[in-house]
TrEMBL record:
E.C. code: 2.7.13.3
Coiled-coil annotated spans: 215-242
Ranges that cross the membrane: 9-30, 154-177
Domain Histidine kinase: 248-458
Name assigned to this protein: histidine kinase
Catalytic activity line of the entry: ATP + protein L-histidine = ADP + protein N-phospho-L-histidine
Statement: the UniProt record of this protein carries the keyword rRNA processing: no
Gene3D superfamilies in the cross-refs: 1.10.287.130, Histidine kinase-like ATPase, C-terminal domain (3.30.565.10)
Listed PANTHER family: PEROXIDE STRESS-ACTIVATED HISTIDINE KINASE MAK3, SENSOR HISTIDINE KINASE
GO terms assigned for molecular function: ATP binding; phosphorelay sensor kinase activity
Amino acid sequence: MLNSLSGRFLILTTIFVMLAEVLIFLPSVARFREDFLLARLERAQIASLARLANDNIGVDLEEELLLNAGVFNVVLRRDEARQLVLSSPMPDAVWATYDLRDPSATTLIRDAVAQLADPEPRMIRVIGNPLRDAGLLLEVTMETAPLRMAMIDYGLRILALSAVISVITAMMLFLAVRRLLVKPIKKLVHQMASYAAAPEDARRILRPTAGVRELREAEEALQTLETQLTSALKQKERLAQLGGAVAKISHDLRNILTSAQLFTDRIETSDDPTVQRLAPKLVNSITRAVSLCESTLAFGRAEEPAPTLTRFNLAELVGDVLDGERLAIGDHDLSLSEDIPAQMMIRADTEQLYRALSNLVRNARQAIVGTGKPGEINIAAREDDTTWYIDITDTGPGLPPKAREHLFQAFHGGARKGGSGLGLAISQELLRGHGGALRLVSSDEAGSRFEISLPMQDVLDD
């Protein structure tokens, strides 16, 4: 219970109420002490009036008057004359004098605290104004022991009453908080657990019912989140089903196209001029279709492992990428170059970085070859204190506006006509696994430039 919100609220409420009662306790005890002393002055004045009314009272009657007043001596000042009206032997000398004619609250509290803290019986003198202007000043001497015992008794009763008030207040607040806050919060948590068990079930989406404004706002925000998540899950499920269907279709279509490709190889040997003119176009179309099917199947089943980071020479890796592309250039006037510092060592997964660079260079090569014009592709590298940068620059025709809008989204159109866009999507995914990024820096009629950035440190190393 102590770890619950309502339990802690109960404890804090009790503590705060007790603290408030303690702050009230000192002024209350000070006021009680003042009233006690004023009552003694009042009784002493009545006893003095009886003495003044009869000058011939006996010693026994005088002692009885002083005993009833609770004092040892009574001094009345009238007409600037100080008169000892009643007196009796005092057990000790006067220890302190307290003037109650116009005391401040601070003085009363200070004297009350000092009285409680001093357990020794003392003799004190108390000065006050007589009632109904019966003189100028009234003085009495009395013991502190009865005063202190009365103050302690009063204080204990105040503390007991405060404890009862604290417990009752805390319990009432406990029940109120439990009903107004804890119960709705538990209901909200239960609903979240129910929704988490089957998030695709729209019937489990929260319906706001809280009357407290803050809780209702939280319920409305959670309702919006659950609605969006349920819709996203449904869309994801539909896309997964669609992806499975596309993969099956692509698999069968690839087999059919492969067979068609074998037939076109024989058609190319025909002597018919029309066949010779149309056969290359048919071969290219079938080849592109087979390539698309294979890329779709590869993307659909791809589960890229986490990169295995090692240190290696970047220039050697770039050299392997360019050597592989040179074999595909053929007789076209296309030059490949690199500007990599010979001793530049980077930390990455060699296989995944090779695939990313190969995709980018291949796209650039196909774009330049498609124009039928000479061109150049360059790979350069640089670094700063935290990041390695690799720039892939080409002199191709640039990317069309439609391709730039969805450049790194699969199946939204590639950087070249007839492309699927899978190469850039896969490259970006591989680089994100390194904590890096792939972005298009520029693209116009003069060519395109892509930038790869790879962080030098892991997140946990920061």
